[in-house]
């Protein structure tokens, strides 16, 4: 095969736009790039400034360039008998066809392949498919991104990497891929078929490096073989060894491994405090700012303690990100520096693990709802199975529709066959559970801690010592898990998985099996299934109607722009039910009765089939159906609990979005105060709980956290230690906080014209002074939208890109990567960007905080907590709103300085920080940056001056 890799630069992406540059890289039969063709093209229309900004191609470059006719005359001979390849090839292909047509040539009729498809399938764990970033990842030279010849060459080299990867796939995986695409009549299908035929002709097939089972090539082996780390050691390696002696050995090995390793004062204190808490059976609140090295600060004492005392230590993080960082960075390093073998296992929520039985079932039956997308996801996963040892969905980049696919193949307790499953010994979830069982230290997340409590401690191995990282989230996660949260689609997904239509769904699959069965009761069972169908359809209709009515209870928000996410929030008060509540409870009652009937009939039928038909081969299908029935039962009970509105200790509310109306409905019932439950589950039961985060104190005191988390009694009994670690950074030299004291103020979540234009002007001037590299934090998405367009326009001429959360597509991590990948850019973010975003070094020089991050006072949970405080004669603003906002503000500030080399500016545009009586709590809580306030006009000169002076 001969390939031609094509790339065009154009004046835009409409059909009326013109080509301004063409690039074509030819890959010969021997898989080398034999030729790269390049030419500018005279477009005959002006090049828009943003295209010049993106590509660097100017009017000067194209004014003497050849016309399209001439370029096509040179390109057409190169396109004979080739397979056309491109990155997002549809774009370039459309321009090619139109150019051929315009210049009088016949259209291109050869095969077309997209490197995007190949990357998705062959490198399922790549975090991005953007050409520049992939080239970077593969160490492919890509000197001039967004220039056609450079893009075409980079794409060609990436395509060759994909072909190499195909060569390394086991034959079985290729057969599976070819089989998957066979029904697709696509060029991709043709390609995999051709590759397979070629491979099958080879006499020597390498079988090494994989486990083969039930026609899949896997990386995972039987987990039964995994044993405790020190099984063969006769005595405890820490016998008679103190923590100090252990640390001496670790430090020596650390210095050998990392010559630049220096012991940090704060980390040393932390090691001591955590060890003491473990030894004395106490709880510990420890605030450790950025740069402390806090993960080692708790992992080393945890390893020492668990090995010496032979008792497990549980470590919990809030984000999966941090869990991954521990898995990929910290644990491997500790494995090398700790002088004896130990095991640390990562254990996540069950839905993160692939169920191999369900996946096999789905692939073999081609049970695809949206075939085009799902075949692609299935192909990714076939390749991934030959690579993954964990089966954890975080390793996969599945694209936007992948989530729905994952839901149908994720591991679930209700549909697990346990030891009866043919896949049991390879099962990813049971492997993770077993690893946690034999590990010394288990790393999990806050969600799983609470799921374990709700499951009667059946999920996690028993533990008496717990380290909670990112502990400022504990209260929030507890509320979500100990309360109730249900979406419109929670119910719909369960119903459609049971019965989508007469052909799709688990019940129709069972019905089809029964039709071929000779069993005397088959007819009776089929009638029951038909009966259930109609009840499920009725339930779906009633649920739609109930969701519609619940949605209409929410008043339209007067201050919301159309399409605002989370647009509607409405609190329901037990003592003041809405006036048509009876009509709604009647609907809920109908759903309750109807589902009760379905579950009774359904479960009885499943049990009968199980007893009667041993050789039926339907065991896994019956288990899945019975699991879905269980889900329906839980959803029915949750809905009943919500509709009763009985508990004074819970706050009930609805949320929805104006665009999707009742389909976006979410219902919540959350405990107003979780401190008693936290005390009961953790602080009374566990020997020691260590809680750490960069933000636990407010105005140098831990009182707020002690009250929120239920630690008052532990403090009174002298079972609570607290510690604030000194910062390893010199904030006076490294950070300057500037407040423009005459900045206009704003009421509510939306700025007036004067405020917005002053803000845009100031942000633009600051961005120019800091050459972009700026993160702007908003408290409302509406204000972000007000600023986005005018700021983008203003900075375009300066060559600075503006990236906006919710305005530019992509997840938080994708936006962050784009920001880091571009030299001069400004990133606008709302709530999720205030914390957990790590942008060290040059990429971030300035941080602008538009408003102090108070939570909206009318949010139901904040409202209910405030009412409770008022009843206790306390001031909700000072007791709740200010501490929450200060913690958030400190999180935001913490984005700026991430290493001892970082320097940066923080601009706070909210003058309440100077004018109000509570402003000082924000300023005093920071780790000591240089603070200055001045009139707005003096701000830019001061910033430039500070950036130009070298730190002393």
From TrEMBL:
<dbReference type="InterPro" id="IPR012337">
    <property type="entry name" value="RNaseH-like_sf"/>
</dbReference>
<dbReference type="InterPro" id="IPR006054">
    <property type="entry name" value="DnaQ"/>
</dbReference>
<dbReference type="GO" id="GO:0003677">
    <property type="term" value="F:DNA binding"/>
</dbReference>
<dbReference type="GO" id="GO:0005524">
    <property type="term" value="F:ATP binding"/>
</dbReference>
<dbReference type="InterPro" id="IPR014001">
    <property type="entry name" value="Helicase_ATP-bd"/>
</dbReference>
<dbReference type="GO" id="GO:0016887">
    <property type="term" value="F:ATP hydrolysis activity"/>
</dbReference>
<feature type="domain" description="Helicase ATP-binding">
    <location>
        <begin position="253"/>
        <end position="530"/>
    </location>
</feature>
<dbReference type="InterPro" id="IPR014013">
    <property type="entry name" value="Helic_SF1/SF2_ATP-bd_DinG/Rad3"/>
</dbReference>
<protein>
    <recommendedName>
        <fullName>3'-5' exonuclease DinG</fullName>
        <ecNumber>3.1.-.-</ecNumber>
    </recommendedName>
</protein>
<feature type="short sequence motif" description="DEAH box">
    <location>
        <begin position="469"/>
        <end position="472"/>
    </location>
</feature>
<keyword id="KW-0269">Exonuclease</keyword>
<comment type="similarity">
    <text>Belongs to the helicase family. DinG subfamily. Type 2 sub-subfamily.</text>
</comment>
<dbReference type="GO" id="GO:0043139">
    <property type="term" value="F:5'-3' DNA helicase activity"/>
</dbReference>
<keyword id="KW-0547">Nucleotide-binding</keyword>
<dbReference type="InterPro" id="IPR011545">
    <property type="entry name" value="DEAD/DEAH_box_helicase_dom"/>
</dbReference>
<dbReference type="GO" id="GO:0003887">
    <property type="term" value="F:DNA-directed DNA polymerase activity"/>
</dbReference>
<comment type="function">
    <text>3'-5' exonuclease.</text>
</comment>
<dbReference type="InterPro" id="IPR013520">
    <property type="entry name" value="Ribonucl_H"/>
</dbReference>
<dbReference type="InterPro" id="IPR027417">
    <property type="entry name" value="P-loop_NTPase"/>
</dbReference>
<dbReference type="InterPro" id="IPR006310">
    <property type="entry name" value="DinG"/>
</dbReference>
<dbReference type="InterPro" id="IPR036397">
    <property type="entry name" value="RNaseH_sf"/>
</dbReference>
<dbReference type="InterPro" id="IPR045028">
    <property type="entry name" value="DinG/Rad3-like"/>
</dbReference>
<keyword id="KW-0067">ATP-binding</keyword>
<dbReference type="Pfam" id="PF00270">
    <property type="entry name" value="DEAD"/>
</dbReference>
<dbReference type="GO" id="GO:0006260">
    <property type="term" value="P:DNA replication"/>
</dbReference>
<dbReference type="InterPro" id="IPR001650">
    <property type="entry name" value="Helicase_C-like"/>
</dbReference>
<dbReference type="InterPro" id="IPR006555">
    <property type="entry name" value="ATP-dep_Helicase_C"/>
</dbReference>
<keyword id="KW-0347">Helicase</keyword>
<feature type="binding site">
    <location>
        <begin position="288"/>
        <end position="295"/>
    </location>
    <ligand>
        <name>ATP</name>
    </ligand>
</feature>
<keyword id="KW-0540">Nuclease</keyword>
<dbReference type="Pfam" id="PF13307">
    <property type="entry name" value="Helicase_C_2"/>
</dbReference>
<keyword id="KW-0378">Hydrolase</keyword>
<dbReference type="GO" id="GO:0008408">
    <property type="term" value="F:3'-5' exonuclease activity"/>
</dbReference>
<feature type="domain" description="Helicase C-terminal">
    <location>
        <begin position="762"/>
        <end position="937"/>
    </location>
</feature>
<dbReference type="Pfam" id="PF00929">
    <property type="entry name" value="RNase_T"/>
</dbReference>
